[in-house]
Amino acid sequence: MQAFIKNYRVLVSAGLLLCGLLLSSVASAGLCVVPKEAGTWVNSDPNTNGVTKVVIEMVCESTPIYNCSGNICSVTYSVTPRYYVKVWGKCSPTDCYWGRVEGTRTSANWQYFFYNHGFATRDVWAQIWSGSDAWLRVVIDTHFTDGSGRADYRIDNWFKRI
Question: How many CA atoms, within 13 angstroms, populate the side-chain half-sphere of residue 9?
């Protein structure tokens, strides 16, 4: 009888753990919502000499958190959205890829990214236009750090979703 009770407890614990895994996965899945900015965007000015394309991505990372009391364990998930941007600038014969960097969403509902290209740093701000999900405003502040004497500048462009 003792063996039966011990096996029963192990089975119930395993069942509870499995239910916890399934339910916490389902419950946390809704916490990570893909932002409207996610996607591929091209500059509305096809003749731009600046930034030609922007790709914004969101990756939903789920980290398990295990809580055990004796031999009974439960698991919950911490869901963290991570935002990334890829930027291309006008170059010839093909556009220059700036790379992929991680950013954040600000309290003012902008997505912010930072590039350090060695000769310059760039603050990239992106926000969907409140009037339509088909338009993205991208503001980029360039600060030269190479001692060349070039003046810092800002671009403020509209991008169309493709």
Answer: 9
List the CATH number of the domain containing 17.
2.40.128
Q: Please report which confidence band the pLDDT of residue 2 belongs to, taking 50, 70 and 90 as the band edges.
A: low
Q: Which domain holds residue 52?
A: 2-161
User: CB pairs under 8 A, 24+ apart, for 92-95?
Assistant: 95/52, 95/53
Contact 85, 111 (CB under 8 A): yes
Three-state secondary structure call for residue 7: helix
- Pair 101, 111: CB distance under 8 Å: no
Q: pLDDT for 30-70, tens place per residue?
A: 468 888 999 999 999 999 999 999 999 999 998 899 999 99
